[in-house]
Write a structure and sequence with these properties.
Growth Hormone, Chain: A, disordered N terminus, globular, 81% helix, MFS_trans_sf, MFS, mainly alpha, membrane
């Protein structure tokens, strides 16, 4: 109890110090300091929507034991949040263009706050699943606004550093969840347990909303042209048909309805494309947006490379706890080298004098090499021999930081200001859908391999999925660099 009291007292102070340091750096980087100060709040809100997924993965054993949930129940609840986020990210990003990004950010924060509180007091699978869906709706509104606000908050000369800061924050959030969740579970009293994670999220999002109202001025909205309700529904149905089967299928041996949903995704995609073409520039994905080669290639790299590590991290967290009997905190400490490497890689990315596409090629190549190294390291890992894995985590994190920073900059550079919201939403929707696919396929491969192999060898075999996807990204980047006919001049400027 003493430790928990100390945590409650010191956490707000630690967050405040970190924010002050971040704000000081931003003020040194741009002559729009009064506006750019609000960028920290945007980054914290965006990071919270990402870190939620790995934190929930660490809390799953405690949630299952406390609420008496089966593995299938946990799989369904785990899919509620990313499913809703993926469905609503693009509409929320476009809504930021229409109604104001500050307004959408605050509305998302309110939904996320209510969802976190309801998750903390949930007493069963239905109440927890519903609360997680509400959190997902809030996360979808929070996530795209930070990236979309960069062109408004920063002059062109400083936008590269802003994208670097954004990408580093997103990468850290995606991989530091196990460590943060482990610390929270150790410091919390036994009677509170996993609920501490959701209460902490509620506290942080409340702090973010207060910062936003004080530091970020209201922004201008665009013209009243808007997507039709049918277009929004067709897009949400398309994402539902793509993502839901990936979570439900592996848990229930791919029943017929999941296969039907996957097949139904094709007509849904055709309907969405037709409605988008009819809506023109007011559509969720304006036609002019996808005509930009830089955005198209960025989406490809997000699909192949940026979304590969989450599946690896979820399986690694489970393997270290179930296969090697490590605690949640020990698991977080083993993976702590990855976020440290992300910080270094993101810092290097902003200072390497290479065009964005060349930096992408370097990053994805190193990321593929790091997964190959992990594949050979994992079978030799034991509870008493974790140092090689820790060192491999640093190298993988460095590669990830270099990759994601360059990919985000490639995708957002050159977007018209009135399309930055939909551009950010498109990139992050692709990231969410790809992350869901990565996690679901990693689970399926790992579960299959566990029937005949030890946990560490099953995890090593699962890594062939990450090696294949990042290897394909490496080949794509190499082709774009070597054969200019496949790219537009805007891709590398």
């Amino acid at each position: 109890m003493c430790n928990f009291t100390y945590y409650i007292i010191t956490l707000p102070r630690a967050i405040k110090i970190l924010m002050k340091l971040h704000e000081f750096e931003v003020m040194q980087d741009t002559d729009r300091a009064p506006h750019a100060r609000g960028f920290t709040a945007l980054l914290l809100g965006m990071a919270l929507t990402i870190v939620d997924v790995p934190m929930f993965a660490i809390a799953m054993p405690g949630i299952g034991a406390d609420l008496g949930l089966s593995t299938q129940d946990l799989a369904l609840i785990a899919g509620c949040y990313p499913l809703v986020v993926a469905m609503l990210l693009l509409p929320a990003g476009r809504a930021g263009d229409w109604f104001g990004r500050r307004r959408m950010f605050l509305a998302g924060g309110l939904l996320f706050l209510f969802g976190a509180v309801l998750s903390a007091v949930a007493s069963g699978p239905l109440s927890l699943g519903g609360a997680r869906m509400l959190q997902g709706a809030g996360g979808a509104a929070l996530a795209p606004q930070a990236m979309a606000m960069i062109p408004r908050l920063f002059l062109p000369a400083y936008q590269s550093r802003a994208f670097e800061r954004f990408a580093m924050t997103a990468s850290l959030a995606s991989v530091c969840g196990p460590l943060v969740a482990g610390i929270l579970l150790v410091l919390s009293p036994v009677w509170l347990g996993w609920r501490t994670i959701f209460l902490t999220e509620a506290f942080i999002v409340l702090l973010v909303m207060l910062m936003t109202t004080r530091q970020l001025a209201p922004d201008k909205t665009e013209s009243a042209t808007s997507s039709s309700f049918a277009e929004v529904i067709s897009f949400a149905t398309l994402i539902l048909c793509l993502v839901a089967p990936l979570y439900v299928g592996p848990a229930f041996s791919w029943p017929v309805p999941t296969v039907v949903m996957l097949v139904a995704a094709f007509p849904c995609a055709a309907l969405f494309a037709r409605l988008s073409a009819r809506a023109g520039q007011g559509s969720l994905v304006p036609f002019g947006l996808l005509r930009l080669p830089s955005l198209r290639w960025s989406l490809a790299f997000v699909f192949l490379a940026v979304s590969a590590p989450p599946g690896f991290f979820v399986i690694l967290s489970l393997m270290l706890q179930s296969g090697l009997a490590l605690s949640a905190l020990q698991t977080g400490l083993v993976t702590a080298g990855f976020p440290a490497g992300v910080v270094i890689g993101s810092w290097i990315s902003g200072r390497v004098s290479l065009q964005p596409l060349a930096r992408v090629a370097l990053g994805v190549g190193l990321l593929c090499a790091s997964f190959v190294l992990m594949h050979f390291l994992l079978p030799q890992v034991t509870a008493g021999r974790l140092m090689p894995l820790r060192m491999g985590m640093i190298g993988a994190g460095l590669s990830m930081g270099l990759t994601v920073t360059s990919v985000m900059q490639l995708g957002m550079s050159g977007l018209p200001r009135d399309l930055t919201g939909s551009g950010a939403g498109t990139i992050q929707t692709m990231q969410q859908v790809s992350m869901a696919a990565s996690i679901a396929l990693s689970f399926a491969i790992y579960g299959t391999m566990l029937t005949t192999r030890p946990a560490v060898e099953a995890a090593a075999a699962m890594l062939w999925l990450q090696i294949a996807s990042t290897g394909a990204a490496t080949l794509l980047a190499g082709a774009l660099l070597c054969f200019p006919i496949f790219r537009d001049r805007k891709v590398h400027t």
